[in-house]
């Protein structure tokens, strides 16, 4: 079993990574828990909820399954309220524990419900997508969407444990595996050249979900994110480097309509564009741009961006959270394994767009 | 000006107590604030919002007034959402600041909105009732009600400053002054015999809102609560003594229907009953029971409890949050200035009820 201990203000929690963790979920339940709420969606629930319940039942507490509708469109207060209704109707108290069994949407909503139910109860993350495993396991971000903005209502709330069963990735669509791997290689590109090289050597094994390779990739990703977050819990500055590829990526998602590309696919393509921009303004070697393009392709993500029109591209990137006073800040890499944030001249960005868009 | 500095995890904030603080609210706005949301209700807003806005305008930031419907019945998610709608429609960001101008309901909702808007922004409390000034200024509790329970959804979120203008108490109905004073004398009874004696000497001045007396009473109350909360931020044990009179009091509020008696009135009467019970089972001197009854009367609160029927009384007290496995825990005082929590035998409770209820 691979274990990452994450230090957070006021404590630490373990991320346990291994095949079959789903059958050992009782190990994550605190000794003084009074009841367990298992939050999932119909898709993941049909596949894994019964196994999770069997394992949780061994903790000797009542287990209540709470099934929420599937998808980002339901990540709102109305759906969240279904959790509160179920907890209160069933007499859950301050010492009860929630378990989030699902991808990022289930994790974000369950975590936020735990953050505000009776002013805060404990929760366990059981992420079932690769993206959630490498991204949501660390950082404590929870929340729901508001009609006027994504993730506008939320809290920082840390889990008591994260249980990552690498076997469940077997039922994940191949596109979602590739999208998750984009966030994995990102850690190499921003802070770990050795891990980047390892990803280049093991791209095929990662796409094939070879157990040792995927467990190692998840572990390094979680460790890397934990190192960044420990230095910047509330997003002052350093944490921004985690957004490598995201300024271009968000423009792709928004420009094509959310859902056309998976978030990770857009980030993968955005990393190619960020590499090109880094070559323009931050001295990133041309040979390394080719390596980035090759690895993004090797993990199965697109490397050619959609042609949204140069002006529309610029407008979309300017509304990104990282824009300040109309100027766009990008995460750039002077070399593989090193990142910084910087504004870039518009003509350089336009040259990058000209080089990276095409028919998709 | 009286100032209480409250230490909280990760920092400290000031409670400033003086006549006219409403005209100096700009002093509470952090230097890097981008915009100010002034949250109030129609009653308080009609009296004080323009003065508050004039003062806040001197901070040089845009001030947006957000008026919520008045009363506990509107302390819910729908009303809270009016704050989010207004903030997002007006482009408020992570560095904006909320100001809560009103009583406990406005303070709880504004504090919770600040706790979860963009995962947490800063807020300033400007409590306009005596109860909110002595009770909500310290402790960081924020939240809204759920149809299945009061304050079930919430967070611990500390203000950056509390501004208490003692002049605004002049427009408070006399009953609400008396109700607030019940929470004031409570601090003397649980932890400060000298302050108790001072309250006995100054009861008339307090009811008359004599400026120096009321400022001193607010200061000592806030300091006392801060001392308790500092030792027990998350309500493990010690903090329970703040609930002196509340087990009896909640039964009164619930038995008569919420709103028939003010919360503070019920707590005042409940303190007389807690004194009687302390005499039964904790060695509280009979002479001091008479002092408690006299001071509760002197501040204008009822000292005779409603006759709800002994069995109904017991049932109502058993559903109190402090009941465990059907046994009722009470906050008791072995002497004035000292408190503990303990289960009490049912026959002693019944004797107290027989002695303290009557026609009201």
Please explain how this structure is put together:
Chains A, B: Pathway: Metabolic intermediate biosynthesis; chorismate biosynthesis; chorismate from D-erythrose 4-phosphate and phosphoenolpyruvate: step 2/7. Chains A, B: It comes from Bordetella genomosp. 10. Chains A, B: Zn(2+) binds at residues 183, 246, 263. Chains A, B: It is an enzyme of class 4 (lyase). Chains A, B: It is found in: Cytoplasm. 2 copies of one chain form a homodimer. In chain A, helix 6 runs antiparallel to helix 7 (211-231). Chain A is α/β, with parallel strands linked by helices and 360 residues long. Chain A folds into 2 domains: 2-171, Rossmann fold, CATH 3.40.50; 177-358, Dehydroquinate synthase-like - alpha domain (Dehydroquinate synthase-like, alpha domain). Chain A has helices spanning 42-57, 77-89, 104-116, 130-135, 174-191, 193-207, 211-231, 246-256, 263-281, 286-298, 310-318, 346-356; strands at 2-8, 11-18, 36-40, 63-67, 97-102, 122-127, 141-146, 149-156, 161-165, 305-306, 329-335, 338-343, 357-358. Chain A has a 7-stranded mixed sheet. Chain A has a two-stranded antiparallel sheet with strand order 7-8. Chains A and B meet through helix 2, helix 3, strand 7 and strand 8 of A and helix 2, helix 3, strand 7 and strand 8 of B.
Q: Order of strands across the widest beta sheet of chain A? A: 1-2-9-6-5-3-4
CATH architecture of the largest domain in chain A: Up-down Bundle
Number of domains of chain A: 2
What do we call the CATH homologous superfamily of the largest domain in chain A? Dehydroquinate synthase-like - alpha domain
Secondary structure: number of strands of chain A: 13
Radius of gyration of chain A: 20 Å
Average pLDDT number of chain A: 94
Structural class of chain A: alpha/beta
- The 3D shape of chain A can be described as globular
Q: Report the total helices of chain A.
A: 12
Largest sheet of chain A: 7 strands, mixed
CATH class identity of the largest domain in chain A: Mainly Alpha
Q: What fraction of the residues of chain A are assigned to beta strands by DSSP?
A: 15-25%
In N-to-C order, the SSE pattern of chain A is EEEHEHEHEHEEEHHHHHHEHEEHE
